[in-house]
Fold this sequence. Notes:
The chain has helices at 2-10, 19-45, 49-68, 74-96, 105-115, 121-145, 154-200, 211-224, 242-249, 251-269, 292-308, 335-351, and strands spanning 209-210, 232-239, 273-279, 282-288, 311-313, 316-318, 322-328, 357-358. The chain has 359 residues and is an alpha/beta fold. It is rod-shaped and about 105 Å long.
Amino acid sequence: MIKSFAKLVKRGFGDGEFDNLILLLRCLLLMMAPYTLFLALLLTLDGEILFSAGAFLTLAFTIVAFVLTYRFPPASLLPVFGAYIDIFALTYAIHFGSEASFQLLIFINLFIIWYDISRSIFGKIFWSLVTGVAACYIHAVGSTVASQFFSEDLVYSLITYTNNIFCVIGLSLIAFFFCTQFADAERKLYLSNRELRKVSHTDPLTKLMNRRFAEEEFKEMEKNFGKNGNLITIALGDIDFFKKVNDTYGHDAGDLILSSLAAIFDGYMKEHGFVVRWGGEEFLFVFEHANGDEAYLVIDELRRHIEEGTYIYDNTPIKVTMTFGVEEYGPLTGMDAAIRDADRKLYLGKESGRNRVVF
C-alpha cells in the first residue's frame, strides 16, 4: 500500500527541474486534506456552520488541486494555491482571532514562494511584503476578537493545536525538500567535478592516468614522504622501435600495442602503486613502499612478459620489447631529479642494446 501511495505521488516524474516542487506541492495537499476535514468536523460540532462549510470547500479545493498537479505545471498552480491559503488564513484568523493560530498558514505560503525557482526575485520580494502586511493585520485585528472565543472552550483549543501541528509539519516538509534538493545539488556537483577530474587525468587511448595526474600525485607524495617511513621508486619505460611499428603496420596497430600494454601494466602495478602514460610511447611506473631492488624485480618480470608476448593486428603477429630506467626517490633531490635520473638510465639502456632494465 505504501509503495502504491508513493507511486501515486511521484507519477509523471522525469528529470524535470520542477519535480521536487511538484512533489512538495502534492505532499502539502495530501497533508491539507485531513487537516481541513478535521477542522470542518470541529467547526460543525461547535455550530460554526458557515466556517465549517468553508473548511469543506477548502477540502474540495485541495482534492481538485491535487488532481490538477498531474495536468498543469507548478508555475501555474502555486500562485493559485498560495492565494487560496492566504485567503483561508486571513478569513479564519480575523474571525476566530490570532490565538487560533490560523495566521501561521500564511508562513507556509511564504516559504513556498521562496522555494519556487520559477518566480523572479522581485516577485518573491513583493509577495513576501504582502505576507508580512497580512500577518501584521491579522495580529492587530485578531487580537481584539480572540477573547470572545477563547476561554476554556475545548473545541477552540483543539483548533489551535491542529493549526500549530499542521504548520509545524508543513514547514518541516518544506525544510526537508529544500535540504534534500540542496544535498542532491551538492552530490551532483561533486560527481560532476569528480568525473571532470577523472577525464582530465585520464589518457583517452590507454585509459591509464596521464602526466597531469602524476604531477599532482607527486606533490602529495613529496609532502607526506617520511611520515609513515615509506619508500618511493620510479621506473620510466619506453617501447623499443615504436616508430617502426607505426611505419610498418600503421598507427592503428600502434594504438593496439599501446592499449594492450597499458592493460598489462595496470595489472602488474595494482599491488605496487600506479602507472601513467607519460607521453607518446613512454610510461612512468611509481612504486610506493618499495625500494629500487624490489621495483627492479617487478619491472624485469614485466619486461620479460612483454618480450614473450605477441600482439595480433589484422591477423598479423607483432612483437615488441621495452627498455626501462629505475631510480629511487630521494627527498633531498626531489621527484624531478628522480625522473631525470630514471630517464638517463632509460637512454643508457637504449644505447646498450634495448630490451633491458637499468638500475
